[in-house]
Amino acid sequence: MDYFIVGSGSKTSSKRFHFDDIPESQVNFFFAKPKDVGGFACFEVSGDTMTVKMIDGLGQLQYKYPINPRK
Which Gene3D superfamilies match (predicted)? Predict the structure, then answer.
């Protein structure tokens, strides 16, 4: 099972409340600098793979994660 938490629903914040409570291997992407202009996630489906992409506010790819079908 893969989980993605995307967006804060508010202004960009660099605060990391409870960040140290999450195992390091579970946090692959953190994007929140005061001067940044936000961003979004999108999903690309091609053949039998879905790829989750994190795009910054300037349209640059910051992170991607492919998901294959369950067996």
Answer: 3.60.21.10
DSSP structural state of residue 9:
S
- Amino acid sitting at position 57: G
54: tokens are 């994190």
Nearest to residue 70, comparing CAs of 49, 39, 54, 51? 49
Domain range enclosing 67: 36-71
Q: How many domains does the chain have?
A: 1
In this predicted model, what pLDDT tens digit does every residue of 27-62 receive, in sequence order?
666 655 656 667 788 999 999 999 999 888 788 898
At 65, the amino acid letter reads Y
Name the phi and psi angles at 19, rounded to 5.
-60, -40
Dihedral sign computed on CA atoms, order 12, 15, 19, 25: positive
Tell me which DSSP letter residue 27 carries.
Answer: -
Instruction: Say whether pTM exceeds 0.70.
Output: no
